[in-house]
Write a structure and sequence with these properties.
single chain, mainly alpha, 11 helices
Length: about 325
């Protein structure tokens, strides 16, 4: 599939925003002492709002008729895109309620309920975003059970890095005090995300092809199906959008870049901050920038290495088998 920068920005920024809200909601709902001033918590909620809003704007810009984006919300019975939009709106409203409750110093029990609702809504939005892709059996690389763990753990990783950076920036003493638990928790999330992504790449590279020209046309019951000639004599919309091919050597290099920037650098800095707490702020900022770049590259590959089954009509095979050497 041809990677669309608007969708890559959308999934990267929104994932970070919802990951930030999810973690912040869990912390506010738990009995764990945050040791954060009210202004810092409100700033974190605002950061999540900015990230998710910018992401949604990129998503709307991707539509052919952005002015009609509101109509997508009406298809919630059958469309995961519609469900995602509704869940995103609900999540923003809940975040606004949490912010108002914090500003008004509402009692702890209602506050915890609202915070838990925020975490649940943020997780629901990420789930709906993932289901947009995993619900498509016509794209083998997306119709994979490891896509959901990858999306969720990367949202937690980038959201956690935003939480860590804002904590270090707004409340330095709290950041230094909580260096050990933050570093250990962050390192664990990054490690889990790395494992999930590696398993996903392993599967799409080696999984047997589920579809063939015969099964796609329904003619496999009468024997082997081979194309006599291509449906078109020149490139068209389908071959341009659905038949994007990235050379294997380029994909390997980009995967290596994604591994180091999304996982290697942040994990190293998270663990290093445990040993040297004084570098917490600079370590958090560099880890956040590195992970953001890495996730962007990872999302680009997520689209670039996926192939729609319609390309079987053009004599191609699966994305993993049809990459250029």
């Amino acid at each position: 599939m041809r990677p669309a920068l608007s969708i890559i920005f959308f999934t990267t920024l929104s994932g970070a925003g919802y990951g930030l809200w999810l973690l912040l909601g869990v912390l506010l709902a738990s009995s764990m002492p945050l040791d954060l001033p009210k202004s810092a918590v409100l700033a974190m909620l605002a950061a999540g709002f900015v990230l998710t809003t910018i992401g949604l704007l990129f998503s709307v810009a991707h539509l052919g008729q952005p002015q009609r984006a509101w109509r997508a919300l009406s298809q919630w019975r059958s469309s995961w895109l519609s469900r995602e939009g509704i869940a995103a709106i609900v999540c923003m409203l809940v975040a606004a309620v949490v912010a108002m409750m914090i500003a008004a110093d509402v009692a702890s029990v209602p506050m915890r309920i609202a915070a838990a609702s925020l975490a649940a809504c943020a997780l629901l939005v990420v789930y709906c975003t993932t289901r947009i892709y995993t619900s498509l059996p016509t794209v083998e690389a997306w119709h994979n059970r490891w896509v959901l763990p990858v999306y969720v753990t990367l949202a937690l990783e980038t959201g956690g890095l935003w939480l860590w950076t804002l904590t270090a920036l707004l409340t330095p003493k709290s950041a230094y005090t909580n260096t050990l638990p933050i570093g250990l928790a962050g390192g664990a999330v990054i490690a889990i995300a790395l494992i999930a992504k590696q398993v996903y790449w392993h599967q799409i590279d080696r999984a047997p092809m589920r579809e063939s020209s015969g099964s796609a046309t329904g003619l496999d019951r009468i024997g082997e199906v081979r194309g006599f000639e291509h449906p078109h004599t020149e490139a068209n919309y389908l071959t341009h959008e659905m038949g994007f091919v990235i050379a294997r050597k380029h994909a390997s290099r980009l995967r290596l870049l994604a591994l180091w920037t999304a996982f290697g650098v942040p994990l190293t800095l998270a663990l290093l901050s445990i040993i040297v707490p004084a570098i917490t702020l600079i370590a958090a900022a560099i880890a956040l920038a590195s992970a953001s770049l890495g996730v962007f590259v990872e999302r680009w590959l997520f689209f670039a290495q996926a192939r729609h089954v319609v390309m079987l009509y053009y004599g191609t095979r699966s994305a993993a088998q049809d990459q250029v050497s």
